[in-house]
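Bumping with the actual sequence this time:
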Amino acid sequence: MYIARQPIFNSSLEVYGYELLYRQSGDSSQFDGVSSQSATASVVTGLFESGAYQIVDNKRAFVNFDAEFLKADLSELIEPQRLIIEVLEDVVVDDELIDKIKMLKKEGYKIALDDFVEDYDDYPLVPYADIIKFDLIQTPLETLRLSVMKAIAANKILLAEKIESEDEFKQAKEMGFHLFQGYFFSRPKIIGKTNESKASSKVQYIRILNELKRPEPSYQALAEIIEKDVHLAYRVMKVISSRAGDDLIYSIKRALTYMGLKEIERWISILMIQDLGMGKPKELMTVSLIRAKFAEEIARHTSMKNVKHEAAMMGLFSTLDAMLDEPMEEALKDISIPLSIKEALIYEKGILQPISELMAAYERGDWQKADDMCMTIQLNAEILLNDYVESVKWAGEVVKLMTD
């Protein structure tokens, strides 16, 4: 089974919930030639068994339900405050379905109408819907003004999905939409040079990363760089303390030697991403961390296990252009990282590119592409779900450590 998640934001770009994209197995790009009920049963069961909190990070899970599955009782495996039931656009509405939706609402479940293209006044499920989702590719914003006005007047929550640019986000927000889904948040907004504070922060991290890439890095030199930045020194000690347990760490240099060079590089890179991501949606850092761990796990299970460290850094740096609002080539300028990472992130080629493509396909729920990339790198697709869930869990733990 495949499960990936896509964030859904509120107007402040805080995560409201995640839509879960899923498929029963690796044999097709849709529902394996069987009913969508089977696929939904798989994802709901998966949520129930692995813990919804782990996959959706204590947020709401948006899950597609067809008519047949709505009439069953499996939805009740997940408590109402965690699950939002998305009614698929092709359901046949009858009295039995409406009665079931009424019952689910009484139990506290929220109902969303997925890919809504019906007439707002005539569609029989509108009165029972809490959330109405508009796909901005199928129904562009300029065609929705009347429906949006009516829905807002009826206190519906409006969700705009497939937003691909900040301009679309702003337009939808101004029109009255409450929730937003798409890849607009992870795209760079190229408006000129990086602001001075981010540029200064980047220079500091570049000095550390460049020292780490020397033939014989010096712990003393690393400690001296870090000690000149009180904020960075505190955060490094915080990371070490979380890993050292009861062992007392008395100095930056001692902390660095405790970690070892590879771990220093990993955590300095994470701290850099956090610093450069200030002012950006927190989800952008979370995506970077998920990709870092996911890429490392993919490499570990293939013939590329010897470049798993580079794969992790490639995943971590994959949103650096959006962090800095500049082209990726400029964002990676002067950072001493392996050529394989720059080839993948700037030129979309090289040894790490198949991992990058697989991650992108998995995030978007393009399961056919994911299957193709698994074949390319000779990866058993059955392990992807576990690797992804572990990556989400790890990213959540790191974010908590960084923000507590």
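The tokens above came from a reply further down the thread. The longest helix spans residues 384-403.
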